Protein: DUF3631 domain-containing protein
Organism: Streptomyces wedmorensis
Amino acid sequence: MPEPYSDQGTTAWPPVAVPGQPGRTTAETSQATDGPAQPSPPDERCPEDERSDFAPERCPETEQPDPEPTRGSELLDELREQIAKFVILPSEQALDAVTLWVAATHLQPAWQHAPRLAVVGPAKRCGKSRLLDVLTETVHEPMLTINTTPAAVFRSITEEPPTLLVDEADTIFGTPKQAEKNEEMRGLLNAGHQRNRYVTRVVGNDHTPHRFATFAMAAIAGIGDLPDTIMDRSVVIRMRRRAEGETVRPFRSRRDIPSLHDLRNRIAIWARPLLDEAADLEPTMPVEDRAADTWEPLVIVADLAAGTWPRRARTACEQMVSAEAAAEEDHPSGARILADIRRVFVAQREVDSLSTEDLIHHLRQDPESPWAEWGRSGLSPRDLGSLLRQFGIKPGNVRIADGTQRKGYMRNKFLDPWRRYCPTVHPVDTAPTLPQD
């Protein structure tokens, strides 16, 4: 077991570069790392080339070479290989992401945000628990939270936090009743994503208020999606059952744990001297906002390791965040209702308003949408109002095309939510829009 981080003089958390604030960049700090930093992507687009001996997304004429690999790159390659022995991940990008997440747990004192790893699947036997078995033996200070109370968890978190591992999360958040019962655990997992978010409890016989830290990286596995607030703070790994012909090595504790512990210790030894370096880096990210906060530690680890990892980390980040954004838009409780209403207004030639009855009729006509089978008898006016209320849209008296006045929705009330929650232009959304009121 490696020595704790404190022997490097990091008992106080080092200052971290905050996105949007001046700070040292990857290029500025490359001389202090084991290898050169990931170069900035070229501005020039790949020219047309009649040859077909390279992938279209990579252009040999304009692409700068990967930085020289370091000891860290070799360790990440070895860790990736070990994970792939026991678990089949849904994609190469997901395997890269899990590898980087494990390595990032050994640098937790450097991070501003503690990314969650949401390991979810549609059914049993998708490899979720087996992945957690491997994570338990490779992450920094694993803390299994089976039958552990939230109070015990936050009392175990220090300035050098453990890595929380939560299995069978569907038994905690699977039903509204379960979620309500475990609201404190959900709040703990949400708060712990960002540094300096505390819970206050009274302790001792004199009931003295005391602040407890919540900041810690966490891997959470379960059937079905986790609560939206947790998924939004996670690197999401969507597991699936092995197909015929896909094989993995059985995990045997006596045989496999010693080698995984040896690898874990070597990763910790490599990472420990880089704490201050990691804290100061502010890498170029392919995503923004909370997704950038969540993925930044993984990208920094990749930049420190160099080799192919900086490019692969950014590819995994961009593709996996895009996939989750598309899934969110398709979810009825998310932006799906807004996107479908936009299609209705486009199909109706951008009329100023639609009655509630007409809008619901058009929504239920789409055979690929969930609205015809929503609830007991399809989407109702009350259901529609409930879905739109979270976006600040309410029905009112509107004048429709035949000159009558009825309950309905005005198009201009949707303009701002459309711009914020579903900015992607769909093929049907090509009609010119009216000027904003």
Remarks:
- The chain has two domains: 67-328, 332-421.
- The CA atoms of residues 32 and 277 lie 7 Å apart.
